[in-house]
Design brief:
Amino acid/polyamine transporter I, 2 domains, six-stranded mixed β-sheet, single chain, two-stranded antiparallel sheet, 25 helices, 631 residues, alpha/beta
């Protein structure tokens, strides 16, 4: 007799699954914001230039309400509602916001430009996070004894180099330890803070927002500079939204409200309590919370936590790059999948080595976490501001929120974002120029690629022969047909591909069956398998096949061919040839692009990964036909 599982069994299984998601979210989502206590308090008092009891209460009050307003209210409560079929992040939000505008309009371009700028700023943030996190953790050794000071930079660089060197092996095995290690980190920092709070319970008065407001009003100039340091407490908040697709909205919210937020507050208030009775502890208030016997284990735990935080940023940069490639904002990069089962585990060699060089240069150039703190914050606050604007556009234009209510809510968030952003502009001369330079380079590359592709496609269309006109010229005996199937990879299935015309011109034949295959990326994260392929059968045994992918999917032509077999459109690979055009792009006299941008686009076009490798087309079945096009 068959037995049915009891409700208790289902409940237990659901609880275990939720517990795993919460634990995973701790390791991946909260690594960055979780390591902020290592340097935030110290940076705040560096900005103020001194320590007094009122300033301690004021700083803690500002940090508390920054966490409440930016993380709890803005991201956890509101912006996570703006999901693209479960996926979050700046590019996912951009695709949602673009739905309210028509392609080709100025409004459409401004939304797209804002999204690309937000993505570019993420790369700037991704360079600083590993540098400041690992360096601030290793600096804890100096608290044990000054003799370790000469080894801080070499040890930091060694940890960073090893971290980037192992990226090509994948993060799956290591990732299994991320959650438990980060959970231990939060438990430890919360306990250390709570012990100090018990000794100085009056520090809890800083929960009152009036202390923070009074500090800002007492000296507005210093208060403005202080806001540039307070924002360090919320760096990493955007990760809650960006990683929503991996863990879901509920586990991320639960982890924040029940575990992460309380642990962070306890540690920040513990550092404040320590400073109340020992102003000299500002040398490193985080590690001076630790008893002498626990200092070395705490440095090791901090190093592990910062590596995890850095790993989350690196993985985010890889994921952002893949999304940008699929959406047509960057040329095709080599993207290696490091897991046969988890599509999210990828490795992008060019991005990995770029980040490694930039992070090591930062450590060698700035040398201390205090100096790096002067460069940190501009990219983060810029991204946060853009997220707010894009979410407002989406909520009004697509989600149907009341216009006045949405403007009031997001106006409040944007006021806070811009206050943080403008305060961080003071850091430009002291190092803030570095992440802005990284972001400017990334933005220039993406806009150049977009504009260049538009010019290239316009030139192809101008010289193209419409497919319907071509089919009308085909006769039963002319041109001759040869056995087999020819698959032409095309960006537009309404015109005759250049490769087909070249083949006809030089070989004087057409294949018995001709397939024009177009691969397109649409503005949702994943396309269901049963909706991936669309076939149109034309006369003279011509067919168009459109293969659709989401911006989180993995293009794979052999897999698409297998699906076509299931749709009774069979392929024999031994009788199939794939024709791929390899164009040489040269500078023309006309066109809307500046010459320097044309040159940059040509360089990007020449160095991009070939379609054969990117789409995993069997190399022994590929015929490449070249041509030249001017832009």
């Amino acid at each position: 007799m068959a037995q049915t599982a009891s409700p208790e069994h289902h409940t237990d299984g659901h609880t275990a699954s939720r517990r795993q998601l919460v634990l995973g979210a701790l390791g991946v989502v909260y690594g960055d914001i979780g390591t902020s206590p290592l340097y935030t308090i110290k940076q705040c008092f560096n900005a103020l230039g001194g320590i007094t009891p009122p300033s301690i209460y004021g700083v803690l009050s500002l940090i508390t309400w920054a966490l409440v307003s930016v993380v709890t209210l803005k991201y956890v409560s509101v912006i996570m509602r703006a999901d693209n079929r479960g996926e979050g992040g700046t590019l996912a939000l951009t695709t949602l916001a673009l739905r309210v505008s028509r392609p080709g309009t100025k409004f459409h371009w401004w939304i797209l430009a804002a999204g690309l700028l937000g993505a570019s700023l993420f790369y700037g943030d991704g360079v600083i996070t590993p540098a400041i996190s690992v360096l601030s953790a290793v600096e804890g050794l100096k608290i044990a004894t000054p003799a370790f000071e000469p080894f801080v930079i070499p040890l930091t660089i060694a940890i960073i180099v090893v971290l980037f060197m192992v990226q090509n092996r994948g993060t799956g095995r290591v990732g299994g330890y991320f959650g438990p290690v980060t959970a231990l980190w939060f438990l430890t920092i919360g306990l250390l803070g709570a012990i100090e709070i018990v000794r100085e319970p009056e520090i809890l008065l800083a929960l009152n927002p009036w202390y923070g407001l009074k500090l800002l009003l007492h000296d507005p100039l210093k208060g403005f500079a202080l806001m540039g340091a307070v924002v360090l407490a919320v760096t990493g908040a955007e990760a809650l939204y960006a990683d929503m697709g991996h863990f879901g909205r509920a586990p991320i919210r639960f982890a924040w409200l029940s575990f992460v937020f309380p642990a962070l507050l306890l540690n920040y208030f513990g550092q404040g309590a320590l400073l109340l009775h020992d102003h000299a502890a500002i040398e490193n208030p985080f590690f001076l919370l630790v008893p002498d016997w626990g200092l070395y284990p705490m440095v090791a735990l901090a190093a592990a936590a910062t590596v995890i935080a850095s790993q989350a940023v690196i993985t985010g940069a890889f994921s952002m790059t893949r999304q940008a490639v699929l959406l047509g904002y960057l040329p095709r990069f080599e993207i290696r999948h490091t897991s046969e089962t988890a599509i999210g585990q990828i490795y992008v060699p060019k991005i990995n080595w770029f980040l490694l060089v930039a992070v090591v240069a930062l450590v060698l150039g700035f040398r201390t976490s205090d100096n790096l703190g002067s460069a940190y914050g501009i990219a983060v606050t810029g991204t946060m501001s853009i997220d707010t604007i894009l979410a407002l556009i989406y909520m009004i234009g697509v989600a149907g929120w009341n216009r006045l209510g949405a403007v009031l809510i997001f106006g409040f968030f944007l006021t806070i974002d811009l206050a943080f952003f403008s305060a961080n502009l003071l850091k430009i001369e002291d190092g803030g120029w570095f992440p802005l330079t990284i972001a400017a380079v990334a933005f220039t590359l993406m806009v150049t690629w977009l504009r260049g592709r538009e010019a290239l496609l316009a030139e192809r269309w101008r010289e193209a022969l419409p497919l319907d006109n071509f089919l009308a010229t085909i006769k039963p005996d002319r041109p001759p047909r040869v056995p087999g199937t020819a698959v032409f990879m095309v960006p537009n299935d309404r015109i005759v591909p250049t490769a087909l015309l070249h083949n006809l011109k030089h070989n004087k034949v057409l294949h018995e069956r001709v397939v024009l295959m177009k691969v397109e990326t649409i503005d949702i994260p994943h396309v269901p398998e049963d909706q991936r392929i669309e076939i149109k059968h034309l006369e003279h045994n011509f067919h168009t096949v459109t293969v659709s992918y989401g911006f989180m999917d993995e293009p794979n032509i052999p897999r698409a061919l297998a699906q076509l077999r299931l749709m009774q459109f069979r392929f024999n690979l031994l009788e199939t040839s794939f024709f791929v055009g390899r164009e040489k792009v040269v500078i023309g006299k006309e066109g809307g692009l500046w010459t320097w941008r044309k040159r940059l686009f040509i360089i990007m076009h020449r160095t991009m990964m070939s379609a054969t490798e990117y789409f995993r087309i069997p190399t022994n079945r590929v015929v490449e036909l070249g041509g030249q096009v001017e832009i």
